[in-house]
Write a structure and sequence with these properties.
Blueprint lengths: L6 E5 L4 H12 L3 E6 L2 H14 L4 E5 L5 H15 L4 E4 L14 H29 L3 E6 L12 H21 L4 E8 L27 H12 L10 E4 L8
Parallel strand pairs: 1-2, 1-4, 2-3, 4-5, 5-6, 6-7
The structure holds nicotinamide-adenine-dinucleotide.
């Protein structure tokens, strides 16, 4: 078991990538703090995990773009399991718009949920980890959209570019506190961000010829969160079926 007795917060764990990450972490011995602002989704994930691994998950309803909500989330997690060892920042939303269709409100909302949320959770979870004195691991979910210009999703791509460099800054600033920060960078995993349905006709330009599964992405998150990655700091681990290699 690679995460035995570790306590892990996974944001946006109500479905897809976050859900599979929480589930895999629990299978590897972690206590999973399943965070989502949708109580139906979050409760379902936590119940499903507890059905298989009794007591391995709690659901915390939180909006990670709100500072107060993030602080409450951390307090509930510590109250339930005593500490926080791992943070996975998985929440994001996309605008799916070009600059002419994207309003200032759209832009600010996408940045708040996709980028500012990672600033808030990292800031307060790192404080908690430092107080505990045992270090920790943070894995922020980026996107290939953070490394390329696209003809849509202007706000999402800008936010994900910010995610990449926020991670590097955090890696540098938190390394002296024994906290490792890295990112996983997906492309085309299961359904598109913000959607539950998967369109089988969607074109998937990569070397594998199919979309990745949320489980395949979760396995990369697990690696970076585990001690197997203890010499890896400030890295963007691309999990995209070779999409970036073709660019
Ligand atoms: N799916 C892909 O193909 C893909 C590609 C590249 C990057 N990513 C990244 O992977 C991550 C997960 O993507 P996904 O497709 O599984 O997302 P998703 O939209 O399926 O799930 C996101 C979850 O986050 C929750 N959520 C949204 N806003 C929230 C908030 N403010 N507070 C708390 N919870 C909130 C939602 O309720 C949902 O359960 C994202 O960071 C995304 O940018 C995904």
């Amino acid at each position: 078991m690679r995460l035995k007795d570790k306590v892990a917060i996974i944001t946006g764990a109500g479905r897809n990538i976050g859900e599979q990450t929480a589930s895999l972490f629990a299978e590897e011995g972690a206590k999973a703090v399943v965070v989502d602002f949708d109580p139906e989704r979050g409760n379902r994930t936590a119940e499903e995990i507890n059905h298989r691994c009794k007591g391995a998950a709690i659901f915390v309803c939180a909006d990670v773009s709100e500072e107060k909500s993030v602080k409450e989330m951390i307090a509930i997690a510590v109250n339930a399991y005593g500490s926080i060892d791992i943070l996975v920042n998985n929440v994001a939303i996309s605008d799916n718009k070009n600059i002419f269709d994207c309003t200032l409100n759209d832009f600010n909302k996408v940045l708040a949920v996709t980028l500012t949320s990672q600033f808030l959770t990292c800031k307060y979870v790192a404080e908690q980890m430092i107080e505990q004195g045992n270090g920790g691991a943070i894995v922020n979910i980026g996107s290939t959209s953070g490394f390329q210009g696209r003809d849509s999703a202007i706000a999402y791509a800008a936010a994900k570019g910010g995610v990449a460099n926020l991670m590097r800054g955090l890696a540098v600033q938190l390394a002296p506190k024994n906290i490792r920060v890295n990112s996983v960078v997906p492309n085309k995993i299961g359904s598109p961000v913000g959607q539950e349905e998967f369109d089988p006709a969607r074109s998937v330009p990569n070397l594998v010829g199919r979309a990745g599964t949320p489980r395949e992405l979760a396995q990369a998150v697990l690696f970076l969160a585990s001690d197997e990655a203890k010499f890896i700091y400030g890295e963007n681990l691309v999990v995209d079926g070779g999409f970036s290699a073709m660019m």
